Task: inverse folding
């Protein structure tokens, strides 16, 4: 009986250490997908600008299914153009955490603008989130 209690205690300690590390890894994976989706949208905005000489109207041309991350399954980030769809010379695209990803408060909302400047709304260093 003592051996069983020791084994249960060891399993409990290992689980207490492993679960937070696993949870953090899952959050980082979701964040990586949102970053990739933001960069892809920024590239699409640049292509739109190349063809139309304006960013105005770009966001309206993006299908609604592409305004979330990931595009299938549960959304963990909502993608948006911060300045609406009227600014002709600039854009800022943001990925706002939603659902279970809200717990990623250290990074918070991820953003990228037309110059490629990347920022966050959280308390961590932007380089750690991007």
Result:
């Amino acid at each position: 009986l003592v051996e069983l209690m020791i084994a249960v205690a060891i399993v409990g300690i290992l689980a207490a250490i492993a679960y937070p590390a696993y949870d953090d890894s899952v959050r980082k994976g979701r964040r990586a997908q949102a970053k990739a989706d933001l960069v892809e949208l920024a590239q699409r905005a640049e292509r739109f600008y190349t063809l139309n000489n304006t960013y105005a109207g770009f966001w309206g041309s993006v299908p609604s299914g592409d305004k979330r991350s990931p595009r299938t399954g549960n959304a963990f980030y909502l993608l948006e153009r911060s300045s609406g769809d009227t600014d002709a010379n600039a854009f800022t695209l943001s990925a706002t955490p939603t659902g279970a990803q809200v717990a990623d408060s250290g990074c918070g909302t991820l953003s990228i603008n037309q110059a490629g400047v990347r920022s966050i709304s959280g308390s961590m260093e932007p380089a750690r989130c991007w």
